[in-house]
Amino acid sequence: MASTNHTTSDLYTLWAPTYDTDGNILQAIDSAQLTTSLLPTLSALLSQRPNTEPLTLLDLGSGTGRTTLLLAAHPWPNPPALTACDSSAAMLAVARAKCPDTVSFALCDPFSPSSSTLPDAAFDGVTSTLVLEHIPLQTYFRTLASLLKPGGLAAVTNMHPDMGAGTQAGFKDEGGVRLKGESFVHGVRESVEAAREAGLERVGDVREVEVDEGMLEGFGEGVRKGARKWVGRRVWFGLVLRKREEREA
Hints:
The chain is an alpha/beta fold. About 35% of the residues lie in helices and about 25% in strands. The chain has one domain: Rossmann fold, CATH 3.40.50.150. The termini are far apart.
């Protein structure tokens, strides 16, 4: 099957019209894990922060707003100020159309020094889901750390290297050509180490998800059809990180 490589931003611009409906098992698992595990953990930890100001949250690489919607719907003890940023205007346009008016949007790429900057310099919490695959480890975690206040928390998810060894983010266009962007296969241990070197400490265990037949029954037919080839393989990992306080750096 022929394939064409694009910049990551261009890939997602082309993918935007079908991104939410192409039956992607990784997106389905990511949303489930965020809802049941990572967001409750993030919420509980952020509620312990000694902060008299409203919490500020950033959805980094928000795409079409899949995670942004989950953040907006989550029962936070106190509703946070939520910002979603992405480098693709087409993906953000989809997100704007379905997210609440309370969400702020920023068209920028914090991983690129030539991109415009975010309106807030640092946030209490950051979510970054299925973004790490596209960025070198050191660049990714240094940027993530720069976007967090001291003591701030981040939920990070990514394609598992067991899956990344055989595929990468992308989709088939109407002509059957597979479109791909820049992609890196990042190991779990090396990701945790790169985060530590950037001043981000792991909170709790890294979660890893392996696909099984029972899991597939909880997804729609569109997801199940393409996911059966991954049964018995780990496809996803996620973790929560805390930025070290300045006095500990």
